[in-house]
Design goal:
Shape: globular
Radius of gyration: 21 Å
Largest sheet: 7 strands, mixed
Number of helices: 14
Strand order of the largest sheet: 2-8-7-6-5-3-4
Order of helices and strands: HEHHEHEHEHEHEHEHEHHHEHEEEH
Strand content: 5-15%
Length: 398
């Protein structure tokens, strides 16, 4: 077997299961998980109806590049959403089976193993960035996202000699687990650094449509390119998904868009990889990308839920004001995220994720240590009940 597999760390939920092992929570309280970022709101019904209506197309092999109609719907959506001059559906868009699969595959296709291959990863982070890097023979370079930097990585803190060996930079905006949004100025600064030091930028924007201020949608990497007049999106790729936007995580549908110079070899890689999207899923995806009403309704549901949870938890927990995504990133009273998680489960039957499981120590303290990731994905009643139990637990432990 590939020896690089031995470098993979236990996944956060594997560690969480071990942490809770042997704990018996109260039988009279139903379990409420706030751990996995799997949307529990109703999936977009019209997309599911389209999926069923086209089930007969399972009898045909799909093409790696996807249907022209799907690429066109994606290009139109991204152009509207991010104020682009346009995206060429034929050369600058590629449908993928969700962002997780595509991010992992892109790293394998992008890294040049014949020279140093450092990959910049925001810390804490979505674990696929690290795992994909290790299995591609690269070396993760963790940039801490702390309160002092607005929970965003400080790219200006990286020395020029370090940039020399960087081949790829990951962004995640809105951030998982912090919910922080990258401003356009930061995107533009990173683009300038990419030109100076010859690296690629991969922006994971799968939470971009879950934001709390309807008048302030989070900007994106391609939007920054457009503002710079960089309509070829050179060095840049974005990753988007229907999982969060349309509550369709099981559909496994998303897209990659940006530089045609990157899309072409990535498409060739995927032809050999054998990961084309099935035709019924493509048809359902067209329906989803062409509709915004259900997305606005979804945002409103999260907005109401965040308001209720914030009102309950703000008096007892310190957390950054959420801008987007469906996470809260509170500091733990007393600082012990593992101990808090285990005790909360034992006493209130609520599962949360220790923040330290999403970060790495590197040369300093793990920036996730002493924090929790709360995924507010359940329906409002269950999520608010979980917040009540967390507050009760904290007040009882004070």
């Amino acid at each position: 077997m590939n020896p690089d597999l031995d470098a993979l760390k236990p996944y956060p939920f594997e560690r969480l299961a071990a942490l809770k092992a042997g704990v018996t929570p109260p039988e009279g309280l139903a379990h409420i998980p706030l751990t996995i970022g799997e949307p529990q709101h109703a999936p977009f019904a019209a997309a599911l109806e389209t999926l069923v209506a086209h089930r007969h197309e399972m009898a045909r092999y799909p093409a790696t590049a996807g249907m022209a109609e799907l690429r066109g719907a994606i290009a139109d959506w991204a152009t509207r959403r991010f104020g682009l001059a346009g995206l060429d559906p034929a050369t600058q868009v590629l449908p993928v089976n969700g962002t997780r699969e595509a991010i992992f595959a892109f790293v394998q296709a992008a890294l040049d193993r014949t020279r140093p291959a450092r990959v910049v990863v925001p810390n804490p982070f979505y674990q696929i960035y690290e795992g994909a890097t290790l299995l591609a023979g690269g070396e993760p370079l963790y940039l801490d996202c702390r309160a002092e930097t607005g929970f965003r990585p400080d790219f200006d803190s990286v020395p020029a000699e370090t940039w020399r060996d960087v081949q790829l930079v990951f962004l995640c905006s809105p951030g998982n687990p912090t919910g922080a949004v990258t401003p356009l100025a930061d995107f533009e600064r990173l683009i300038a650094l990419a030109d100076e030091h010859d690296f690629l930028i991969a922006s994971d924007e799968c939470y971009s449509e879950l934001y709390l201020d309807e008048a302030a949608p989070p900007p994106g990497l391609l939007e920054a390119c457009a503002r710079l007049g960089r309509h070829d999106y050179r060095r840049c790729l974005v990753f988007h998904s229907l999982s969060k936007r349309s509550n369709l995580p099981g559909l496994r549908s998303g897209f990659v868009a940006g530089s045609a110079e990157l899309i072409a070899p990535f498409r060739r890689y995927r032809t050999y990889h054998g990961c084309a999207m099935s035709l019924p899923v493509q048809q359902a995806s067209i329906t989803a990308w062409n509709d915004e009403a259900h997305v606005r309704t979804n945002r409103e549901a999260y907005r109401e839920k965040f308001a209720a949870v914030t009102e309950l938890l703000a008096p007892v927990l310190d957390f950054p004001a959420p801008e987007a995504s469906f996470y809260l990133w509170p500091a733990v009273p007393g600082g012990g995220d593992e101990a808090f998680t285990r005790a909360l489960y034992a006493e209130e039957h609520v599962s949360v994720l220790p923040g330290s499981y999403m970060g790495r120590g590197g040369s300093g303290r793990n920036p996730g240590a002493g924090r929790l990731r709360l995924a507010l994905v359940a329906e409002r009643e269950a999520t608010v009940e979980a917040a009540r139990r967390i507050r009760r637990f904290i007040e009882r432990s004070a």
